[in-house]
């Protein structure tokens, strides 16, 4: 019975990889807007501090709350949880990553 649950968890991981993660290069683009917003808000806070603006007259932090459908593409754009520097180069070229060897069996149906 435990093996059945492990298989279900594994197949869910494969689905997330293919649909929301590194398995689809479109996901990298989906995270760009959020990254631009994060950097822009940080730049504004840094500039306000440098200009000695009165505390309370500028935004010190922008908290973001989201679901996996937003966070996973964002983490892919940042290259988080990658084990190989070559993988990050694929992301920069907007190329999807290959499935890990154990997961390729599911893809080919063998």
Automatic annotation (TrEMBL):
| E.C. number | 3.1.3.62, 3.1.3.80
The record's subcellular locations are: Membrane
InterPro entries from the UniProt entry: His_Pase_clade-2, His_PPase_superfam
Q: What is its main location?
A: membrane
What keywords would UniProt list here? Hydrolase, Membrane, Signal
The reaction(s) annotated as catalysed by this protein in its Swiss-Prot or TrEMBL entry are: 1D-myo-inositol hexakisphosphate + H2O = 1D-myo-inositol 1,2,4,5,6-pentakisphosphate + phosphate; (2R)-2,3-bisphosphoglycerate + H2O = (2R)-2-phosphoglycerate + phosphate; 1D-myo-inositol 1,2,5,6-tetrakisphosphate + H2O = 1D-myo-inositol 1,2,6-trisphosphate + phosphate; 1D-myo-inositol 1,2,4,5,6-pentakisphosphate + H2O = 1D-myo-inositol 1,2,5,6-tetrakisphosphate + phosphate
Q: Which PANTHER family match?
A: MULTIPLE INOSITOL POLYPHOSPHATE PHOSPHATASE 1, MULTIPLE INOSITOL POLYPHOSPHATE PHOSPHATASE-RELATED
Q: Which family does it belong to?
A: Belongs to the histidine acid phosphatase family. MINPP1 subfamily.
Q: What is this protein called?
A: Multiple inositol polyphosphate phosphatase 1
The gene coding this protein: LOC103495181
């Amino acid at each position: 019975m435990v093996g059945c649950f492990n298989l279900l968890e594994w197949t869910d991981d494969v689905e997330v990889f293919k649909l929301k993660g590194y398995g689809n290069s479109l996901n990298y683009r989906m995270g760009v807007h959020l990254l631009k917003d994060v950097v822009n808000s940080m730049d504004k806070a840094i500039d306000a501090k440098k200009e000695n603006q009165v505390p309370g007259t500028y935004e010190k932090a922008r908290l973001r709350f989201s679901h996996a459908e937003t966070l996973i593409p964002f983490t892919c754009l940042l290259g988080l949880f990658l084990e190989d520097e070559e993988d990050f180069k694929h992301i920069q070229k907007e190329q999807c990553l290959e499935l890990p060897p154990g997961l390729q069996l599911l893809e080919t149906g063998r």
